[in-house]
Specification:
mainly alpha; two-stranded antiparallel ribbon; 2 strands; 71% helix
């Protein structure tokens, strides 16, 4: 796992050196912060929808959308 993370960091750092009209294409520190925030937000939405809503209501039709065939 550590090898894959190291390779990902090296790949992002190499992409960070690419410039388009004199502007860096990506900032690796900001990118990883964005990725961390996205994962945290996904976890919070999952926790609220799965643990709070379904535990209290148990109405799977609203949880999964329209589940009727016709």
């Amino acid at each position: 796992m550590l090898i894959y993370v190291t390779k990902l960091i090296m790949m992002v750092e190499s992409v960070e050196e690419i410039k388009f009209f004199g502007i860096k294409l990506i900032n690796s520190a900001d990118f990883f912060e964005l990725l961390l925030r996205m994962l945290l937000n996904i976890f919070v939405v999952y926790w609220i929808s799965n643990r709070v809503y379904l535990k209290n209501n148990q109405n799977y039709q609203f949880y999964f959308g329209n589940t009727r065939g016709s």
